[in-house]
Amino acid sequence: MRRNIFILYLLGIIKAQELPYGMPRYFEIEVNQPIKRSAIRIQEGLKNHFFDEINPIIEGNQHLYYFEIILEKDDPIHFKIFDSTFHKSSTLYFIDIQNNGWVGPYTKDSFSNNDFILTGRMKTKNIVVELSISKNIKPKNPLGYIIHPKKMSSSNSMSKQKSINREPNNKILLTGYWPPSNEGIRSFSQNHLLNPNGWIGGNWENRGYDIVSYFPIFTDPDCESCGQGYGDLEVDYQDTSEDWWNIIDSINPIAIITFSRGYIDYSWELEWQYFNYFYWTADFTEPFYPTPAPPDSSLPINTRRYSSLPMDSIVSQIASSGLGLTPYIDYTQGAGAYLSEFMGYHGVWHKAKMDSANIPCIVAGHVHVGGLIDWDTAQQAVAITLREVIKVVDEYRSLPGDVDQDGVLSIYDMLEILDYILSNEILDNGQLDRADINLDTHIDVFDLLLLSNLILDW
Questions:
Q1: Taking the domains of the chain in order of start, what are their residue ranges?
Q2: Would you say 66 and 130 are in contact if contact means Cβ atoms under 8 Å apart?
């Protein structure tokens, strides 16, 4: 029984990006015969009978087909795979032989009733493709063509709102699943058992924000097949959701970044969209799926919510950091239909709820962390990501008229100005700058009138 559950789990998390969940046979067998090589350009593909020219390696009841794709340069690319030519016994990997990383596996279940899928992004000139298929099946070419990612338009603007929350809010929430994402945020944990070196998140880098993190614990912190774990946000839908809302209620974050392990490479993948799925990948403990499903009863099945992270600036800063990572925005699909997407959806879901309640939560979104990234590099990339998020939060807190600096314009800001005019309150220099809406160097009734108009039009 346990073996059957484990097999179902492995098959199910193909759509998820908690990795590694499978390894190409390429690393475990000797490929003695010459591998067929093919130079391909972006937007080109392989001819339909390409696999007829390859002699497979026989392994039990499977045939393993290998060939190498050579690109002109290491531009970021995706492969397009078609359901119509993908046999149900096939397993497909794309291996970056420059760093021994890979994306995959892809199987028939990966399509989820779609005609095609786009693979995870790769950025290398030399890619070995491994196709495993039943030995009595003549393989067809499932690869369509190579795609250079094009930036898609995104509704990434953050809605402005009036606030009914008087309390200042300076906490930023980080969550992780599976190494190296947990290690990237461990130093922000306030749990001394998880972070014996001490919390570094208090007024982090003197930027005015407390950074706090939560993540599950695994017996082996560098685990591959990690299991459910224990503690906060276990790899379990019900536990994650219960812990999530308790954490949210306790810290009321002004920004949220959720992390998890991604492909086995050096990617820093920012997920653009998250789905209110009905069908999810099974976890470890009954009930194996979210309850309820879809988790968000306020929206129809498969409704998308979107990241509001400053994704472009994060990608730019990671790319120029010298860390050797491949940052990109995944505009092509969801975040995996497993605990990664479940967590990412909770983040953007909470932000939407705060928007509706007129309570500031400025940004939320999910990052997949490449499985080959070492812990120190992951920590540095998290710090870069945090700095870009804080820039956005600071911009909202510097709004003209936002005297109490809660990120939104409200009646409370008007009361601050009124108290100042009546000499009942002293404002510091930053507050005076934000209160001087008409920029005439005086705080008076005209600033009050302008702020009133802004709030009514907000």
A1: 2-147, 171-397, 411-457
A2: yes
Prior bond of 294 cis (ω within 30°)? yes
Q: Alpha-carbon distance 274 to 260, whole Å?
A: 14
Domain 171-397: CATH superfamily is Peptidase C15, pyroglutamyl peptidase I-like (3.40.630.20)
Look at residues 435, 438, 388 and name the one whose alpha carbon lies nearest to residue 414. Answer: 435
- The answer, yes or no, to whether residue 168 has pLDDT greater than 90, is no
Q: How would residue 167 be classed by pLDDT, with cut points 50, 70 and 90?
A: very low
- Work out the pLDDT band at 288, boundaries 50, 70, 90: very high
Q: For domain 2-147, give the fold.
A: Jelly Rolls (2.60.120)
Closest CA to 264 of 152, 388, 96: 96
Q: Are the CB atoms for 305 and 276 separated by under 8 Å?
A: yes
Pairing outcome for strands 126-134 and 91-96: antiparallel
Beta strands 273-275; 304-306: pairing state = antiparallel
Higher pLDDT, 266 or 431: 266
